[in-house]
Amino acid sequence: MKTGIEVATRRAGLKATFARRIQLSLLVAPWIFGIASADSPNIPDAVHWSASVKSAAAITRGGTATLDLSGEVQKGWHVYALEQHPGGPTPLRVTLDASNIVTAAGPSSGTAAEKVQDTHFGFETQLYTHPFIVHLPVRVGRELAAGKQLIPVSVRFQACSDRECLLPRTVHLSVPFDLTAE
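RESULT FIELD:
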């Protein structure tokens, strides 16, 4: 039979464990249930995104163009670049969302990333601390009507400061361009 002290000690331990689980649940619940978003007032806006479509000539059905994605990194923050070591930060990913508007026509290129010894991960990472551009060559669909088109693009990234790393986020952009009749 347990003494009153043993029972009280066990109850105190269970209460502390339960309290830690509740605290952890409250901390991660907004992310799990999608309540927190990039627009939440408590989450820093570490990078501003914009995109455009560039072409040397008029953009026509079956033609090629370049999608330029620009990231403006806010002071005190950095965004991890396209190439990273396994087990490191979430690399920058630019993805064309499923549509018949455009398909990728080659690998991405763009502003050279800085290589730094990262204290958060303990090895060299590639990152951007200043404005940068990622170029993605695209081929325009052949079955589109002439006129304004929108390319759906997703950008997945992770940003950190010297004090904190934000959870990886995905932003969705719609990039307009004019399709010229042939």
